[in-house]
Description:
Layout: H1 13-23, H2 47-52, H3 57-66, E1 94-96, E2 100-101, E3 105-110, H4 116-129, E4 144-148, H5 153-167, E5 178-181, E6 191-193, E7 199-201, H6 203-215, E8 219-223, H7 236-252, E9 256-258, E10 261-262, H8 280-285, E11 288-294, H9 297-303, H10 307-310, E12 313-321, E13 331-339, E14 352-359, H11 370-382, H12 402-409, H13 413-426, E15 429-435, E16 442-448
Parallel strand pairs: 3-9, 3-10, 3-11, 4-5, 4-8, 8-9
Antiparallel strand pairs: 1-2, 6-7, 11-12, 12-13, 13-14, 15-16
Helix pairs in contact: 1-7, 4-5, 11-12, 12-13
Amino acid sequence: MFHEDGSAIFAGQDHAQAVARALSGVARVRVLDLSKHWPDIPPKADISDWLALGHSREDLDRLLDQAEDHRQAKVLGEWDAGTDKQYLPPPRGWLLGTAFCRKFISSIVAPGGVGKSALRLAQLISLAIGRPLTGEHVFQRCRVLIVSLEDDADELRRRLRAACLHHGVAQPELEGWLFLASPGADGGKLMVPDQHGRPVVGALAGKLAATIMDRKIDICCIDPFVKSHSVEENSNSMIDKVVQILSDMAGALNCAIDLPHHTAKGQADPGNPDRGRGASSMRDAGRLVYTLTPMTPEEAQALGVSEAERRSLIRLDSAKVNIMPPMTAAKWFRLVGVEIGNETDGYPSGDNVQTVEAWSPPGLFADISVPVLNAILDDIEAGLPDGNRYSDAPNVTDRAAWRVIDRHCGKGEGPARQIIKMWVGSGLLIQHSYENPTTRKPVKGLRVDAVKRPS
């Protein structure tokens, strides 16, 4: 519960101290100890019990005015590693695959309209119902809070309904596990500039902390990050203060906090954390940062995907993953339109709303990652040690290009020949005339069109 001037009132010493530590240094926090004013306070009593005794709001305001500001201890809190009784720490609190983890900030960086909100919603529903919808392991069922700062409540409900219809999630499964908020301007900001342009903590910080504690939230997603504050987004010092509020809150309240983020203008660059708009301190604060980009025409050609299908496919790449090894290959998802059944007389077709599902490359490429594809293409481009080039001709033996594919992923001659044929047909591999270094006769071999390589 929060007082109008930003002072915090908490119903339990543990919670009070935890949140006071989380917000110390970035917000003015007061901890009201009722036992000093209520000598015979019953066990587990809180501020509501005190008010029920007949005390007024004015009485509470007077106590708050007398309460001291919380101050951090003036010591570092260091410990001796040689005598540390917690030398073996507990495992990290992973929630879903390697996407979310307790006490850490995660983010997904993508241009607008690519599908990051749809993907995040499907992942978060997975946690709320305790079963995977996106092909990622659910470590435990979680209470989820989604704070939408871009879509209103009705649009958030449309997105939720589309995801639930497509994945067969019944509404009762969400009760007590998935909480939604679309506060609009009334929600405030995490941080705002004061009349002198200096950053001060806004109302949203206290509201988030109170809701996370009240609902016992395990993961909170604030979408998008840029709408959560009104300080200069290109200022590292100011953005650092914003994310510090959330980082401290995640640690103190033992929850994960996710911040979907827009990219800066320019060409998509899978796996590049610097593509996020604004100050780099946003990227630096995240420990689990991923990028989401559309499938390129070159990737579609390499994977044997039609142009029509390509437009619905998106790839997720590790961009900055500090607390575990990064993914070795992209994860793919398909955008799916869902009729949500909200037709009316005025709108007989109702709405078709986007959600996502996990996707794998078609048969021939099902177990070949993009890095392996590029390693194959590297070898084909390099040619043989004697200076000859690989060939797709049916009768060649030592120069057979299919052998390169078989060497890298054990596809066998038939499937490997099909892949080479597909690449030649798409223009990824091109015929190149050269002089055989042994016979000095003109022959043809394969080169790689670098422009059409998958990224």
